[in-house]
Design goal:
alpha/beta, 4 helices
């Protein structure tokens, strides 16, 4: 089983896209089917309306390949409605 683990994934800025690009490049040589998000998935306060900018766009190539993402909640994620929007 191969998987990638990342945490504090970012704000949708260049640095996050660089990590996502590296994850995609690694996938090309060593396919994996799982990414574990170790918390603080949406900065700054877990606002679900940012999900496109901080998750769907950066990881679109992997999502299109069927890579599954499983997320743990972090302290930033629970700041908005105790993370209910993310859980939903």
């Amino acid at each position: 089983m191969r998987f990638v683990y990342v945490a504090d994934i970012g704000t949708g800025a260049k640095g996050q896209y660089a990590v996502a690009w590296s994850m995609n490049s690694y996938y090309q040589k060593n396919p994996y089917n799982l990414v574990i998000l170790g918390g603080d998935n949406i900065y700054n306060n877990g606002e679900i309306e940012k999900i496109d900018a901080v998750f769907e766009r950066p990881y679109k190539p992997l999502l299109k390949k069927g890579v599954k993402f499983h997320a743990c909640l972090g302290n930033h994620d629970i700041r908005t409605d105790n993370a209910v929007p993310q859980v939903d």
